[in-house]
Amino acid sequence: MPLDLDGVLIDFGDTLAYFSDEGFRRYEEALLVIFRSQGYHGSFERMHRIFRELIVGSTSGELESLHEFWDLFLEKLGINKSGTPIRKLEEVRIHYSAMIFELYEGAFQVLSTLQKKYHLALVSNCAIGTSDIIEALDLGKFFELIVLSYEVGVRKPDRRIYLEAIQGLKLEPEKCIFVADEISDLEGARGVGLKTMLVKQGSLTTHDAEDPYFSPDFQCQHIAEITKFL
User: Fold this and answer.
1) Which of 12, 67, 189, 229 is most deeply packed, by most CB within 10 A?
2) ∠ at Cα 151 (58, 212), nearest 5°?
3) Residue 1 counted as domain residue
4) How many folded domains does the chain comprise?
5) Res 2: pLDDT
6) Which sign does the torsion angle of CA 135, 139, 144, 150 carry?
């Protein structure tokens, strides 16, 4: 029996796309070339650690702009900010945007199918600048609304990020379902009245879950399978 739904909210990382270690390393290597030219003599490992810390730290909107992100990065590396072209760092970031994440097989087809039946919103905990990755992957065309944690200043499973999406779509929560790879995300979604679907394809399914045995309304092994339920 078809579900009585008007909207589908979908997570990004490990739900629609997975992180590419190779793509990210190439990105970091390109940054290191710039930093070396500006006098950075530390190791790649130190740069990597600082970079990852800043990326994770930016997901709740602590930084107001990418310029502020780069300024803080340079400061932590001990590089003179006034002599380093932010423009060049941004060019490298944009160039590698489509290489840092790769879409799961079937993701485009799933979104195309759902778009014909439902109002769609992308709801993701992500680092500053992720909007450019979403654009580079050509995902924006499928969604009426994109709610990113660094832009709204709150992360899942905080109820406010789901309400931002529901209210933006002008729908009732009981008429919507949230699709994600992490139980903690689904716990927050259920807390505001959303139906839940777990896609068990990522490596962090039980990460930060209050109840690792949480029972979603629906579950499957791969994003390509969700249209069996929707």
Assistant:
1) 189
2) 70
3) no
4) 2
5) 60
6) negative
